[in-house]
């Protein structure tokens, strides 16, 4: 085990820490960081989590490796069972999925995300891939973990999404409560610059990576930055979690979520070896 | 309608004849997995136009049909190549230039619409959608209040595609079909659609299909085609993994209209049929894709 680790490894470990033991957790497709985070959690602090793979709907598989595409049999290997598409979505509709991971080309302070289009919907400047199951799932899944790997670009965390694909706490149509959505909304937003929580349904900066300043986060964030008075550096990840990230993803698929510049960041564990196995 | 002919084996060309210009077409499989690519290529050769595609999360099947100018309306929940190759270039270009009618959908919404068709009822209620841009793309959705609880729900209309195109592992001549998991929406498409056209890796005896497990029963299946490597370049486990290099070649080509034309000439239109297509890809390459099961190392190598 080398004494250094990188931002992609740290983010996977931080995302894993958003999972509580015993939860039923699901990720979508195109989300290697979330896939890896779930497998890390399952092998560390959340051994009783129910892990449902994003496209194979496999239950608790033991992947040979994380493949570049999510609908691959590698993410089905040695699974306890393979759910049907219908079974997973019905489970989520009746409130049986505790946590889902969602990301977006844009994310607003209420936790709404956009994976549909940049620019107006009738004449998109960039047509993004689309939301998969997000616009139903985000209404009924109990808790959401959001993540963003391109926060620094200044284009990801925005005051208003050009299009809302997945639901946060408040949309122009009203709040979750007003719209009758039983799901609880986003609990965490983990980016490559820091970690946000949502104490009043609005993103609040709670932790910073040690090589990032508050001013950098402010400059990269398109909405007014609310800062937790107890703002602190994020504790280094559990070395065991970092080792797992490396073992699970030998192809480095997770690294494709980041810009090249971020991948050059290097971190070290403190001399006293302090790390945090399950805190954010 | 029950399909009761004892022998449904047809050529790929005849099978594609079940799809008419303007049809609502459901594509089986998903993303990089078990997409009905032989049929997709045949629709391109047949110069089909104005198709309305429906599906969950898809990749090259949709991108290729859009690139070939076969699509008018797009009702998929996602089109792209994930972190693998990113956005779908032909789809993106068509969407941004206004050539496509975008009706982006959501996986559960689509499932419930197919179920309504299967159940023979006019709509199904779902949660979510309100407050999102997806709602704006679907004036046909309604909003209702539950007569028992007063809950506010979105009513989505029954959706019965004209034709479902599915690639499976085994079928007998009568049309009993074996598919491997994940099944994605294949079963729902088969039971909700007017016609079901199936290509399979291999034709088999009824007893062999029964032993492997019938997923689509004969009466739901309109036509069967034997099309080995019919999902290529997507995967059809356990026979072969996806052809990542070929997919990369398409994505690169699809960046321009000229590139799409060159790709189609080289692989789809030029060779003139599936035998020609597979010949252009190369026997060695195809055989290698089946080596994924030899070891984790080999599998990883094929996907890197």
Write a brief structural summary.
By secondary structure, chain A is of the alpha/beta class. Chain A has one domain (4-258): Glutaconate Coenzyme A-transferase, CATH 3.40.1080. Chain A has helices at residues 7-16, 32-43, 85-93, 134-140, 176-179, 214-220, 239-248, 260-263, and strands at 4-6, 24-27, 50-52, 58-59, 81-82, 99-103, 106-107, 113-114, 117-118, 126-127, 143-148, 170-171, 174-175, 186-191, 194-197, 204-208, 227-233, 266-268.
Descriptive terms for the model:
heterodimer; A: 280 residues; alpha/beta; Glutaconate Coenzyme A-transferase; eight-stranded mixed beta sheet; two-stranded antiparallel sheet; 8 helices; globular; B: 304 residues; nine-stranded mixed beta sheet; three-stranded antiparallel beta sheet; 12 strands; 36% helix
| Alpha carbon gyration radius of chain B | 19 Å
> What is the fold named in CATH at topology level of chain A?
Glutaconate Coenzyme A-transferase
| Percent of sequence in beta strands of chain B | 15-25%
Distance between the termini of chain B: 46 Å
Number of helices, counting only DSSP H or I runs of 4 residues or more of chain B: 14
Low-confidence stretches of chain A: none
Walkthrough of the structure:
The complex is a heterodimer of chains A (280) and B (304). With 280 residues, chain A is α/β, with parallel strands linked by helices. Chain A has a single domain, classed as 3-Layer(aba) Sandwich (Glutaconate Coenzyme A-transferase). Helices cover 22% and strands 22% of the residues of chain A. Chain A has an 8-stranded mixed sheet, with helices on both faces. Chain A has a two-stranded antiparallel ribbon with strand order 1-18. Chain A has a two-stranded antiparallel sheet with strand order 4-5. The longest helix of chain A is centred in the N-terminal third of the chain and has 12 residues, at 32-43. The mean pLDDT of chain A is 96. Chain B has one domain (12-105, 160-293): Glutaconate Coenzyme A-transferase, CATH 3.40.1080. Helix content of chain B is 36%, strand content 21%. Chain B has helices spanning 12-16, 37-45, 60-67, 82-85, 89-96, 107-119, 133-136, 186-192, 206-212, 244-253, 257-269, 274-281, 283-289, 296-302, and strands at residues 24-27, 51-58, 71-81, 86-87, 101-102, 123-126, 142-145, 152-157, 163-171, 177-178, 195-203, 223-226. In chain B, strands 1, 2, 3, 4, 5, 9, 10, 11 and 12 form a 9-stranded mixed sheet that branches. The radius of gyration of chain B is 19 Å and the shape is globular. The mean pLDDT of chain B is 97. Classes of the chains: A alpha/beta (280), B alpha/beta (304). The interface between A and B is large, with 66 and 60 residues.
């Amino acid at each position: 085990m080398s004494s250094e680790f990188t931002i992609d490894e740290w983010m996977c470990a931080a995302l894993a820490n958003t999972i509580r033991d015993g939860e039923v957790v699901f990720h979508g497709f195109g989300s290697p960081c979330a896939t890896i985070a779930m497998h890390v959690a399952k092998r560390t602090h959340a051994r009783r989590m129910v892990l449902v793979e994003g496209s194979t709907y496999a239950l608790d598989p033991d992947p040979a490796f994380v493949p570049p595409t999510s609908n691959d049999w590698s993410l089905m290997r040695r699974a306890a069972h393979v759910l049907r598409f219908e079974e997973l979505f019905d489970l989520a509709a009746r409130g049986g999925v505790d946590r889902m991971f969602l990301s977006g080309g844009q994310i607003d302070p209420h936790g709404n995300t956009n994976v549909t289009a940049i620019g107006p919907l009738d004449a998109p400047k960039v047509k993004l891939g689309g939301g998969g199951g997000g616009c139903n799932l985000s209404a009924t899944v109990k808790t959401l973990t959001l993540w963003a790997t391109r926060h620094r670009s200044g284009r990801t965390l925005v005051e208003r999404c050009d299009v809302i694909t997945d639901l946060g706490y408040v949309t122009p149509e009203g709040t979750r409560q007003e719209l009758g959505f039983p799901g609880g909304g986003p609990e965490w937003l983990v980016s490559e610059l820091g970690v946000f929580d949502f104490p009043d349904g609005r993103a609040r900066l709670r932790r910073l990576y040690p090589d990032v300043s508050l001013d950098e986060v402010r400059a990269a964030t398109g909405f007014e930055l609310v800062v937790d008075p107890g703002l602190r550096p994020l504790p280094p990840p559990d070395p065991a979690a970092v080792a797992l990230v490396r073992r699970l993803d030998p192809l480095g698929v997770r690294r494709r979520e980041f810009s090249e510049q971020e991948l050059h960041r290097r971190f070290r564990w403190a001399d006293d070896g302090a790390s945090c196995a399950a805190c954010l | 309608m029950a399909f009761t002919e004892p022998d449904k084996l047809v050529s790929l060309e005849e099978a594609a004849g079940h799809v008419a210009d303007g049809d609502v077409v459901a594509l089986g499989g998903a993303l990089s997995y078990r997409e009905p690519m032989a049929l997709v290529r045949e629709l391109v050769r047949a110069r089909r136009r104005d198709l309305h595609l429906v599906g969950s999360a898809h990749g090259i099947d949709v991108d290729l049909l859009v690139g070939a100018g076969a699509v008018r309306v797009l009702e998929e929940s996602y089109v792209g190549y994930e972190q693998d190759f990113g956005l779908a270039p032909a789809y993106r270009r068509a969407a941004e230039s206004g050539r496509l009618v975008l009706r982006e959908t959501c996986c559960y919404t689509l499932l419930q619409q197919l179920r309504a068709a299967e159940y023979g009822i006019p709509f199904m209620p779902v949660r979510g959608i309100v407050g999102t841009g997806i709602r704006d793309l679907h004036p046909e959705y309604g909003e209702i209040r539950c007569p028992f609880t007063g809950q506010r729900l979105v009513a989505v209309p029954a959706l019965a595609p004209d034709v479902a195109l599915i690639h499976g592992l085994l079928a007998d001549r009568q049309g009993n079909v074996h598919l491997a998991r994940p099944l994605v929406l294949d079963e729902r498409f088969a039971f909700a659609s007017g016609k079901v056209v199936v290509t399979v890796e291999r034709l088999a005896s009824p007893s062999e299909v029964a032993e492997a497990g019938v997923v689509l029963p004969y009466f739901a299946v309109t036509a069967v085609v034997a099309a080995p490597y019919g999902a290529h370049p997507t995967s059809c486990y356990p026979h072969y993994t996806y052809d990542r290099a070929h997919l990369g070649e398409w994505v690169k080509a699809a960046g321009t209209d000229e590139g799409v034309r060159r790709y189609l000439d080289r692989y789809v239109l030029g060779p003139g049929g599936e035998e020609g297509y597979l010949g252009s890809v190369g026997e060695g390459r195809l055989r290698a894709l089946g080596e994924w099961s030899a070891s984790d190392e080999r599998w990883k190598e094929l996907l890197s």
